[in-house]
Amino acid sequence: MYSTKIRILNSELGVLQKQILRSAAVSSTSIKVEDATVPLKSLKDIPGPPSLPIIGPLHNFLPGGMFYNVKGIELNKKMNEMYGPIVRLDSMLGMNLIVALYDAESTAQVFRGENWMPVRPGFPSLEYYRKNYKHRNEESSKPTGLITDHLEPWKEFRSAMNPVLMQPKTIRLYTNAIDQVAQDMISRMKSTRDENNMLRGQFDIEMNLWALESIAVVALGTRLNCFDPNLAEDSPARRLIHRVNDFFNYAEALDYKPSLWKYISTPTLKKAIETYEDLENLTKYFIQKAMEELKKNGGKSNDEKGVLEKLLEINEEFAYIMAADMLFAGVDTTATTMMGTLYLLAKNPDKQQKLREEVMSKSDKKPYMRACIKESMRLMPVISGNFRKTTKDYNILGYHIPKGTYVVSMHHNMSLNEENFPRATEFIPERWIVDKDDPLYHGNAHPFVYAPFGFGVRMCIGRRIAELEVESFLARIVENFKVEWFGPPPKVVQAALNYVRGPFNYVFKDL
Ligand code: HEM
C-alpha cells in the first residue's frame, strides 16, 4: 500500500519536423511598434477582469466575485466570451501579468516570432535552487536543464539532448522494456481489484507509479520496482518515489500560490531545497549504479546504446540533469494523459471496441490507437495553455505587447471551439484519420489550435517516450479489460497541470 502521492510535472517525427520547419520558414512576425500604421493600444487597454491596487484582479475570484468558483476550462471559456480573443490578467500579489490568447493566428504570430530561442516561464523555485543555490559559486552560464534554462544555455543543452531523446531509433530500443512495465502493471491491477472490479489503491497514485516505473527505465536505466509492495521504506527506490512526490507538492506551493519565498527564506523553501537536493542525489545514485552495469556489459554498438548511455557519452553532468528533468516532467503528464484516455474510452465503448480490434489484430501500424490518444489530448490535455515570455515587442490585434510579457496560448479552449473542430466536445478519434474531403478532417483546423506537446524548438522533448509509454499500456489494458465508467465525470483541477482528481469510477472487467 503506497501512502505517497506522486505529483510531478506529453505524431510522428514528420509532424514534428513539419512544425519546426514551418516555424523556421516563416520569418518573425513581431513588429517594430513605431512602424505600425495606426497607433497601437497599450497593454492596459487589453480587456480583462477589473483590478484593484496590490491584489490585482484577485477579488473577482473570491466569494461575491464574478469568477468565484468558476474554474479550469469553464473559467477560460467565460473569460473568452466576456473579453474576446485577447485577455489581460493583471498581476496578483506579486505574480506576473499574463496576456491570454484565444486566437490561433495571434498565437502563431507570437510563437513563430519566439521560435528561435523561446523563453518559457516555468518553475521559479527549482530555477532558484539550480541557479542561485546549487551553483552559487559557479559561472552563471552553466546549463541547469531544459525546464529551468532559457536563451543560450537552454539552446546549448537542448541541441545536445535532441539527437538522443528525439531519435526514434533510440526510443524504439525501449519498446520491450516499456511493454514489460505495462504488463507488470496489468498484473498489479488484476491482483488489486476489488469485488466490483475497481482498483483498491487510489487510481491517480496507481497511474503515477506506472508512469514513474516507465520513465525510470529510460532516465535511470533501471527498474525501480515501484509495484513491489515489499519495497523497504528506506530503500533508495522508495525514497525516490517519495521525493518525486514531495518535489511536486513544494514546487506547486512555491510557484503557483502567492508566497514570500522570493523575499525571505520561508520554511517551505527550506524544505523544498532539501527535497531538490535529495532528489538530485538519488538520481545520481541510480545513474552511478547504471554506469557500473554499463561498464560490465560494455562494447555495444552505437545503435544498441540507450538514452542514458548516449547522455553519459556527451557529459556526465548533462546526464544527471536530464534524468532529473525526465523524472520531473515525465510522470504526472503521462499518468494524467492515461487517466483522460481511459475515461473517454470507457464512455465510448464502440470506440474502445474498435481500438481493441486493432490491438488484437497485432498489426504493426496502429493508426486508431494514435488517433484515440490525439483525440484524448484534444479533449483532456494535460496542459491547457502554452506559455512564452516575449523577447521582443509585438502588435497583436492592435495592442502593443512589450518585450518581457508573459503570453499564454489557450489551445485547449481553441480545440473545443466548433469553428476549429466540428462536433468539438465529442470524442471522435476518426477525425485524425479521415480523408481531406471529410468535414471532420483535423487538418481543416488552424495548426495552432492543437498543441498538447507545445510548439516548435521548445516542444516537449519527451513526446516520443510519452507516446511509446501510453500506447504500450493502453494496448495491454484493452487487451485484458473492458473498461467502464459510472457516475459523473472526473473532476479536473487546473494547477501546474490539469490534474484528474476523481472520483475515479473506473471499472476493469475481464474480457
Ligand atoms: C503525455 C505526456 C506529456 C505531455 C502532454 C507533455 C507536454 C509538454 C509541454 C506542453 C511542454 C512545453 C512545450 C513548450 O513550451 O512548447 C513540455 C516540455 C517538456 N517536457 Fe513534456 N510532456 C509529456 C511527457 C513528457 C515526458 C515523458 C518527458 C520525459 C522525457 C517530458 C519532458 C519534458 C521536458 C524536459 C520539457 C522541457 C523542454 C524544453 O523546454 O526544451 N515530457 N512537455
Automatic annotation (TrEMBL):
Domain of life: Eukaryota
Lineage: Eukaryota, Metazoa, Ecdysozoa, Arthropoda, Hexapoda
Record key words, sorted: Heme, Iron, Metal-binding, Monooxygenase, Oxidoreductase
GO molecular function: heme binding; iron ion binding; monooxygenase activity; oxidoreductase activity, acting on paired donors, with incorporation or reduction of molecular oxygen
Cofactor: heme
Family designation: Belongs to the cytochrome P450 family.
Pfam families: p450 (PF00067)
Stretches of the chain forming a coiled coil according to its record: none
PANTHER family reported in the protein's UniProt record: CYTOCHROME P450 (PTHR24279)
Binding site for heme: 460
Protein name, UniProt field: Cytochrome P450 333B10
